[in-house]
Amino acid sequence: MSKGTVLLLKDKASFEPIKIHQSTTYDINDSTQQFSDEYEIKLATLSYTSIFLPVLSHVFVNVEELSKILTHGPEKKYWGFIATSQKAVKGLKLAWNNSFNDVTEAGSFGREKTLWKSLPFFVVGKATAKAADDLNLNTLGLKSGNSESLAEYIIQFHGESNPTALPLLFLTGDKRLDKLPTRLSEAGIKLEELLVYETRPYGNFSTELENIVKKNRQIDWIVFFSPSGVDVALENLMKLDLWKTVKIACIGKTTGDYLEKNGIKVHVISPRPEPESLTCSINEYTP
C-alpha cells in the first residue's frame, strides 16, 4: 500500500540535440524517456508513488565557446572549475565530448585533457558529482549541499593549497544566485563565469497539471526544486482545491526561504539536493 502520492515539479532529465537558426543548442527535456528517475526509485523503496511534472525547460548554450576553452587548456588561465548543478555538468560533458572525444593522452589535445582532469573540479553534492563520473575529473565538494557550503569549502581549500591568483572557471545557468560568487569575491578568489544553460518556463505546465489532478484525486506532497520553479508553478497550484490540504516539500534552504517569502508554509526542507535526503525528510515528517 502506498504511503502517499508525491508530485515532483521536475522532469526525468535527459537531453537530445536540436537545431535552431543554424546553431546547435541542446534540449535537456525528453518526455519520451521511460527510465526510472532516482527520486522515483528512492520514494518507491519507502512505498511512495511519484508523479513528475516539468515546470522548467532548459537549453544548453555556449557549447562551442566552452569547447574552445577546453581545447586551449587551463594552463596559465584557471586553477580549477565549478559546476553547481547537474545541468551545468551536462553542458560541460557536451563540450568535453566535442573537444576530447577519442583523444588519448599521447594524441592531439591529450595534454590539455590531462591538465583539466588534474585541476580541482568543485561541485555541489553527490548528485552533481555523479553526473560527472564518466569524465574522471578531480571532483571535490561532494559533501556540500548548497552553494554557500561549497563557497566555504573552496575558501578553505584555497587557503590550504595556496594556488596561484588565476581565476576559477564557473559554469553556470542564467538563474544562478549571487551567494557563491559574492562569498568567493569577499575572500579574494576570482571567478570567470560562462553561461552554459538557460532556463525557460515549461509551456504545457497548466494543461498537464489539470490532467494530473483529474487522474489523481489524492496528492499528498508537492516538491519544489528551485525558486524559478516556484515562480512558474505557484499561481496555478494555488487555484486547486488540493492546495488547501497538500503538504509542501522543497530542495534546499534557498527554495524554502523563497516559498516562505511568498507566504507558503513549508513542511519539509531536504537539506541536500539528493533523492535519499528528500525521501528521508518526507518519510520522517510528523505534523
From TrEMBL:
E.C. numbers: 4.2.1.75
Associated pathway: Porphyrin-containing compound metabolism; protoporphyrin-IX biosynthesis; coproporphyrinogen-III from 5-aminolevulinate: step 3/4
Organism of this sequence: Cetraspora pellucida
Keywords recorded for this protein, A-Z: Heme biosynthesis, Lyase, Porphyrin biosynthesis
Gene3D superfamilies attached to this UniProt entry: 3.40.50.10090
Gene Ontology MF term list: uroporphyrinogen-III synthase activity
Family membership: Belongs to the uroporphyrinogen-III synthase family.
Gene Ontology biological process terms from the UniProt entry: heme B biosynthetic process; uroporphyrinogen III biosynthetic process
Segment forming the signal sequence: none
Tetrapyrrole biosynthesis uroporphyrinogen III synthase domain sequence ranges: 38-279
PANTHER family: UROPORPHYRINOGEN III SYNTHASE (PTHR12390), UROPORPHYRINOGEN-III SYNTHASE (PTHR12390:SF0)
One GO CC term, this protein: cytosol
Catalyses which reaction(s): hydroxymethylbilane = uroporphyrinogen III + H2O
Name of the protein in question: Uroporphyrinogen-III synthase
